[in-house]
Amino acid sequence: MNHLITIAFFVLSTNLFAQDKQDQQDEIVAVWITADETKVEIYKEGTIYLGNPINSKGERNTEIEVLNLEYKEGKWAGKIYSKKRGRLLDVECQVEGEKLLLEVTARFISADLEWSRAKS
Q1: Helix (H, G, I), strand (E, B), or coil: what is residue 102?
Q2: Interatomic CA distance for residues 47 and 37, integer angstroms
């Protein structure tokens, strides 16, 4: 009987841990406001997190992909489109409360950006 209780506890705690991890991974899924007031919607397709700007009608503009990220080791990493440079740059992102912190790297130079979660 003790073994049965131990196994049940292990299964329950494993499921709860997996759900917490999934919730943490998906906390980036939201609409974010950039420094220049552009709204970017980040959503999940499979295991990839994509970001597209929101147009004036409040719709996702799927013709422009701003972010393409994967969740690894507690943060999201991938590519961000730099309109200023006209190319993709490396980016790592972390969510802290209502802020999305982005570290953008171009060769040996990096810059930190901060986006805010849009109010629903």
Answers
A1: strand
A2: 28
Q: Which residue has the tokens 């992102």?
A: 93
Distance CA 112, CA 98 (A): 16
Residue 23: phi and psi, rounded to 5, are -60, -40
pLDDT attached to residue 4:
43
Name residues whose C-beta falls within 8 Å of residue 100's C-beta, 6 or more positions apart in sequence: 28, 32, 93, 94, 114, 115, 116, 117
pTM recorded for the entire structure: 0.78
Q: Could you tell me if 102 and 112 are in contact, meaning their C-beta atoms sit under 8 angstroms apart? A: yes
Three-state secondary structure call for residue 17:
helix
pLDDT tens per residue across span 91-112: 999 999 999 999 999 988 999 9
Mean pLDDT of 33-60: 95
Strands 30-33 and 87-96: unpaired
Q: How far apart are CA 120 and CA 105, in angstroms?
A: 31
4: phi > 0 → left, psi -120 to 50 → alpha, else beta; which?
Answer: alpha
